Amino acid sequence: MGSQLRNMFPRGLKQPQKGFRFSADALLLSTFISPGANNKVADLGCGCGVVGLGILLNNSGKNLEIIGIDKSYEMIDLAGKNASSLSLGQNFLPLEMDAARINSENFSAESFDIVLSNPPYRILSSGRIPEDHSRQEACFCTDNVLEDFFRACFFLLKNKGKAAFVFDSGRLDVFISKLKNLSLEPKKILPVYGKAHKSSKIFLLEARKNAKPGLELLAPLILYDDENKLTQQAMDFCPFLTCNTRSRA
Fold first, then answer.
1. What is the pTM for the complete model shown?
2. In which domain, by residue range, is 177 found?
């Protein structure tokens, strides 16, 4: 059963019937970063576990240890069930905790090789705000929430360790400024476009803790062609997209 569900991934993942459901940006993040063998990885705001589980499936044989952290009990419960159904429970530990409360009382400093996050990136005061509380927390944020994620990343990461994020392109300047203020140096940016003739809506970014400045702007990733079909580039970058064509980009 586990191998069958792995071949279907991300189809078959348990998600809340109401509230926030993952989108293509989480799948892109899971294939953006390349962990080394035996790396220890933290996924902040892991939701139903899609990013961490995608990393495990995309890096089989590397003996990774992934801890998925989310303050929602429902999400953590679903993440654990998803890991179990994919036979990945030995490598994926779901943990109910608010990223803002990560400190030396519950984790050892500099104990992770990689920290990942798909933080909420809609501004709380703009647009229509969902009535569902879980969707509010998953989709909308303030600058303080963003800083909480970055502080947790800095605390957890080993010196020169890697952090990876997916975020709203319209707030790239704010995002980079806050990263650098917390000694997380942006090293790579991948702009993601829904279609070639439209503006980028999201970007993927890799940062390193206490690294020297030096930023590489990668060639753009185009998700769909003019016939609304996934591009070969997108499928090569993230094979999981073929089973999940919903995108925010």
1. 0.88
2. 2-243
